[in-house]
Write a structure and sequence with these properties.
By secondary structure, this protein is mainly α. The chain is built from six helices and no strands. Helix 1 runs parallel beside helix 3. The radius of gyration is 21 Å and the shape is globular. It starts with a helix and ends with a helix. The model has no long low-confidence stretch (mean pLDDT 83).
């Protein structure tokens, strides 16, 4: 899913730069609809966690594929079969990847500890994690609206700035 999300993020960046947000919508809607149907099917047939994981992975792959397909108007996509670019890219991005792993671990370590440590007061670990995580979810939800707003406004403001400071200043 990380690779699929990376491809989708690249597509979203292109759509943002071209102010074609409907393409992001269609790619996300397609993958989300597939995921919803897959989850319903997995629950109905009482499959398991592995099937849910596969459904998520396929949904993200579908979103990435849709993003790539929708971006073909602006970018010619070709995959290099050699490793001449891949190895240097991996070497250069490895420190950033390690930093992201440490960041994720430090962000989630409290929930992980709550999930595995023995608790008193007749509280299940999963309940403790849910109660503890609720304020974080509310905070993330509060951040979503300004984030979406800035994702839409950023390319427009950049175009205004490129046209000149006066137009940019007037639009802000």
């Amino acid at each position: 899913t990380i690779f699929s999300q990376s491809l989708m993020g690249a597509g979203n960046a292109l759509f943002q730069a071209k102010t074609r947000f409907e393409n992001t919508f269609w790619a996300t809607a397609l993958g989300s609809l597939f995921l919803l149907i897959s989850i319903i099917v997995v629950i109905k047939i009482k499959s398991g966690l592995l099937s849910l994981t596969l459904a998520y992975s396929l949904a993200y792959f579908l979103m990435a594929t849709a993003s790539l397909w929708l971006s073909r108007k602006w970018v010619k996509i070709a995959f290099d079969k050699t490793t001449t670019l891949l190895i240097p890219l991996l070497k250069r991005s490895l420190p950033f990847g390690i930093a992201l792993l440490f960041s994720l671990a430090s962000f989630k370590i409290d929930s992980i500890l709550l999930a595995i440590m023995p608790l008193s007061h007749n509280l299940k670990n999963s309940d403790a994690v849910a109660i503890y995580s609720l304020p974080y979810r509310m905070f993330e939800l509060a951040l979503a609206i300004p984030t979406f707003l800035m994702n839409v406004l950023y390319p427009i403001l950049i175009k205004k700035l490129q046209e000149g400071w006066g137009g940019f200043k007037a639009s802000v």
